[in-house]
Amino acid sequence: MKYIVVLWVFIYALSAQINDSVSYPKRPGDREFIFDGADLLSTEQEQRMRQKLDKLLTETAIPIIVVTIKSLQKYNAPYYGEYGMRDYAKKLFNHWGIGYKKVRVQGKNGGSKEVSWNKGILLLISVQDRQARIELGADYGYTKDEQCRKIMDQHIIFYFRQRQFSKGIEAGVNALEKVARNEKIPNPPVPASHYILIALFVVLGIFTFVSLSRQGASGWAWVFWGAVFSILGAILIGIITSSGRSGGRSSGFSGGSFGGGFSGGGGASGSW
């Protein structure tokens, strides 16, 4: 029993020492939104995303912060696969204080009141560790985890596996903006196989049209093939187009991105 107690004391002391040595990237400005320590984004992409995120923050008081780093080791963070990334993302979120615990909103009778609004969002990418994490503010709880999982797998990691990091980050930001606005997230990117199906669909349509024209098919044959192609066309259009509701709550928020918010542990992780 004595040895077990000593072992636990040693593990606790080692864990405390590791936590004390963990460091963090330099926090971006209140409305800069992006720290690209791994140099994955072009100047044009950063500018485009900052404009989108600035508009989102003004209209909803919800900041989305994007952080790219080369590795967890650079910041003395222990690497344990997905769990190490999740732990560091939560610590970074809390260290920077992303979002706000409460915000003041205008009441119907002209007065104002404070409401709980801990809804900041962090997207963290560690390139050499091949890990990514979406970390959510505490007010989301775990209600958005399923959406975050789809965004991570279908919008971010989809591109990362092709080493198109900038596309994956921007696609992730666009989808997370919909989460912040409580809107439907865009459909995922279209794989190359879908374009092959479209090409086959066109070839089959031409072949059928020529065949029916030469053989003088009856009117019912035209109706049948017309129905078939209409159904297939609708399916393909549904695959390659994205949809979402527009709009959002406009509050004219003028604050920054860091107001003491903290993570509740919700979100999603991914690797490539």
UniProtKB/TrEMBL annotation:
Which InterPro entries does the UniProt entry name for this protein? TPM_dom
User: From which residue to which does any coiled coil extend?
Assistant: none
Q: Which UniProt keywords apply?
A: Membrane, Transmembrane, Transmembrane helix
Q: Extract the Pfam families matched here.
A: TPM_phosphatase (PF04536)
Instruction: State the protein's name.
Output: TPM domain-containing protein
- Gene3D superfamilies from the UniProt entry: 3.10.310.50
Give a yes or no for keyword Transmembrane helix in this entry: yes
Q: Which residues cross the membrane?
A: 192-212, 219-240
Q: Where is the TPM domain?
A: 35-178
